[in-house]
User: What shape does this take?
Amino acid sequence: MYVSHDFHMRFIAFFATFLKHAEAARALLTVMDQGRSHATSINTFMHRLQKDNHTTALEFAHFRQDIDFGMDERFIDMSGFQNPFESPDFDKIAFEEDYSFIHQAVAYGFGSQTCNNILKHRRERFFEILYEDWDIYLSDSLFAICGYGMAEISGKPHVMMHSTDLEAAQGSFKGFSRNYATFVPSNLPFSMLNYTVSNYYHRVWAAYDWFGSFIFTAYVGNFAQKWALRSIIPFPYFSFAEYNRRSSFTFTDMPDSLFPPASRTNDFFSFGAYCKESSKPLDLEFKTFIEHPKSKGTILIAFGTFIDWRKAPKNYYDAFATVVNRLSEYRIIWSMKGERPPGLKKHVKTSSWVPQNQILHHNKTVLFLSHGGLKSTKEVICSATPTIFVPMFGEQTRNAWLIKEKGFARIMNKFKINVDELDTHMREVLEHPNYQQNANKFLTYYMDQPIPTLDEGAFKFNRLVKYGGKMPSHFYPKSLDLSYFTVLNVDLLIVVPIMMLYLVLK
Ligand SMILES: *[C@@H]1O[C@H](CO)[C@@H](O)[C@H](O)[C@H]1NC(C)=O
Ligand SMILES: *[C@@H]1O[C@H](CO)[C@@H](O)[C@H](O)[C@H]1NC(C)=O
Ligand SMILES: *[C@@H]1O[C@H](CO)[C@@H](O)[C@H](O)[C@H]1NC(C)=O
Assistant: This one.
């Protein structure tokens, strides 16, 4: 039978409209307790999904009022309970300890403690949210224990959301075949700030970090999760490795162009390489200060919401105060909570809140001192600002290292903060234009994408929804169904020694 070209075109057009108005899904994003940091890493992507008419709601254990996330709220009110993540021990870890996978397991313990309280004291609220009948669950890969439980008993598909790169343990659970020994480790120690993959000892450390993170996440952290969820998930209890393995997709906020090239499967996408426009103009108070005609440039010091200078060891504060007082040809904006300490000179402005992104984008800003959270790291890239990182915890050292490698940052060891170190680092960046040139150059690579990553991520999400939240089985790697023994080729590697042994003994 002859079918006219016109008919074909109309047929295609019909399906195109059908696909364009793809089913709008009701998605529930569950993040860690009072999870502002993780929620704001993921919400740029959520806002993009809203444009495609998906409903995105945000769930977390809520201890106190927080910012507006631009999502429907399904919080579980935990006011009156102690949030274990806000313990005074945290300041001690931030200022005085080298962060490792052991701290990560402790954090899973904190999340489990709160989830146990939810299932004991806020059980109706937990089930009320669950019974809203979501189409798909989006799970924060770190510490959102009750969120995992909700998705697990709902029987609906779930997607893993990473506020940074795919962590080594989670990547191994998902059969990514990544050789983490050849990347910079997430928990890069301060003794290895000059990490290089060609160094044997550094690779040994990277492998140690990988296996440590695997064991502490799969067994130690999971033990607490099993306990927290025992009333809704009976024996053999909740398995975090299995939960990752069965997830139908993985989205991360780590920009591909920033991270070293790494193997990936069909069910992985990084939406992270975007720049956020700052919509509001710079506050007049800051603008006047920055644009002072005598200023050689602005230096911004901002260490994120977690760090409280009042709790910093005294020598930290003293070193910073001495050095910034000396740099009187510059204008310095220092973000700190509480009262302005005495002794700071007039060219130093302190404020408990600073419009960080707008200041970074101002063309008089010449240097940023940051802790190296991923959001700040991206603002550094998008505003092309030379930076000195003073990483405190989590993957901040690794983020700092990634920018240092690109040639527009230096890293300071938090254990060695003194006037000379700080002064040397700052003068080095301020006096050498190559830091600024490298920052400009990297920004052009970063923005050079075939399709804006948020659009491509939305496309992939829509396709997932079209298939009911889980792709057909051939879409997923076979390694998900094989044991580690097979996937890591251990079975093949032992053949040769066994044959040799056989020949020798024969
Ligand atoms: C979203 O819904 C609006 C109103 O129903 C419709 O006009 C628009 O085309 C939809 N957008 C998409 C991407 O489906
Ligand atoms: C790397 O740093 C360590 C300690 O900071 C130092 O001992 C070592 O010499 C450095 N190695 C290189 C190749 O720079
Ligand atoms: C900085 O921006 C101002 C306007 O905001 C402009 O007049 C000036 O030329 C810019 N300076 C440089 C060096 O780009």
